[in-house]
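Troubleshooting entry. The earlier prediction with beta-D-galactopyranose gave an output that would not parse, so I re-checked the input for stray whitespace and re-submitted. Clean input:
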Amino acid sequence: MSPSKTPVTELSGNGKLVYGCDYNPEQWDSGVWQEDVRLMKTAGVNLVAVNIFGWAELEPSPGKYSFERLDEILELLHANGIGVNLGTGTSSTPAWLTTLHPDILPQSASGTRAWPGGRQAWCPSSPVYREHALRLVDVVSRRYGSHPAVRLWHVSNELGCHNALCYCDVSASAFRRWLVDRYATLDALNEAWGTTFWSQRYSDWQQILPPRVTVSTNNPTQMLDFHRFSSDELLGYYQSETGVLRQHSAVPVTTNFMVTAHIRNQDYWSWAPHVDVIANDHYLDHRLGSPTTELAFAADTTRGLAQGLPWMLMEHSTSAVNWQPRNIAKGPGEMHRNSLAHLARGADGLCFFQWRASVQGSEKFHSAMLPHAGTDSRIWREAVELGGILEKLSEVGGTTVSAEAALVFSWEAWWAYDQESHPSSDVQYLDQLHAAYKALWDAGITVDVVAPGADLSRYKLAVVPGLYIVRDKDAAELSEYVRNGGHAIITFFSGIVDENEKVRAGGYPGAFRELLGIRTEEFFPLPPGKTLALDNGSTASLWTEALRLEGAGAKVSVIEGHLAGTAAVTRNRHGSGDAWYIGTALDPSALRDVVVEAAAGAGVTVLAPPEGLETVVRSGADHSYLFLINHSEEEHKYVVQGHELIVGEDVPGIAVIPPGAVRVVRITNPTP
Ligand code: GAL
């Protein structure tokens, strides 16, 4: 367990905000390095991640090392005042290793072994991989553990990006060990997994396998436990690298998380205490309905993992990525808006993948700070400009975001909610969560993202989208919070099962029936495209339910079909607080109205900014900083008094934010 977090600004070398990138000098002749470093200084880069994929270069054959080029790079960066975020280099195995030990390669649920030739092709439970990787970490940390350029250790890379779930026999044994730890007896496991169903009872631990492909559907609790095991397994691997690093180095250690919409295999609530710096990688995902609000959600979640302290954006892109079906390039100013949205939401460091665009390999069409076009390019000019902006925003470093509302998010709920054989495969956890988050974002309500069971006492409102799986204790705490005057919004398919995926019988939404003062007998998911009219003029889609009021009042009801007259949104007085239930997928404006009404009732400040204007405040002891990010093509005005830091002018009463621009207004805090 990491004793305390390292302030991100300490990693810049001058106490300012971190500005940096992944740097892969191994892809270039050393002649290019001098130019790289000169241009890094021009852009204001102060920290670069190197050696992320360095294994084959450092250990070209088993036990034979070659450090000359890395030595030279570290010296060059150091001589130029640029710090190093040093990769342990274990992320991708060299060809000799998988040739010698093909059993390292991970296996899919259908039994296919991955071949080498891509990256991260190793089984998280493989003792052979671990032995070789830790030997490399040992050698690297002995050599560079006290190097003056090294400010941070970067363990592996995005652990679990490609290899989180391995179904091989080695993983099967590790899974069984994990299950013995969790359940101690086979009887307890049989009970938890409900193995009387479909004759699945186990009479020997050896019979238990990872949830490999079957001819039908797998046991849901086995699936859920396999997710839990797989997250723990990679965390264990992270800790084993950290253990080696700590023997030879006092430099802080981290790894880059993937708090993002398309990767969900690590439960970062359990990882977060073990890193010295919370670092995230985030890329705009154009497959989503609203990539910009998803960015904000990911940033708020990362801040939640950092317990509200500043964190570091370890990777994002200057423009297009290369791994989406259509890799949409960022328009002028968009990169600044994205980067500064992360900063607004608590990042004290902004780094890109990567420094110089590759000319070979599968990422050659991925954007970089220095694109193929070179320095005479918009991307390069914007990258240099961003370095200048961060310089002007230095004083924001160390300040924090304070929110009056919390949003409860759980990786475990994500795994469980989206399993097969549920009422509707059109209803997915993240979609519902993003819808709730967007309603808050549109209303200008900043939220802290918290884990189920987190202390909510400092919040006026808790928003709980689709918490399908919930432990008794966490449900009880939410009830207690409302009883004591807190306010909650809970959305459909919440409270349904306990931690073993066992339905709480007696009526839905199980764990939250009493808190919400309702009881649902049956779900009626709607076919795609089908909507039902509601009495507030909006519509219900995807999901409806036969909901009975048991103390709650109806706020919105269905007015057509066999559910006509049934409540779709309810409010229940519970102790001295209100508990709202949203029992359908409302259209966005109706959802925003409900959220705003509940928030206003809870006493939450609703900034209600004009459409497309993102507003977030970071606060320090003497000053607060209002970030105004204009995502729209209209000019916006905002009533505020202070000093604008990017343009550098006083704002006597109204800030003007041109289309696409960002303004950061320093406001003097009132004297207490
Ligand atoms: C990340 C990864 C980087 C690079 C980047 C491209 O997942 O850590 O190495 O591949 O994606 O977007």
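This one parsed fine. The pocket of beta-D-galactopyranose is lined by residues 157-158, 161, 281, 283, 315, 321, 353, 363, 366 (CB under 6 Å).
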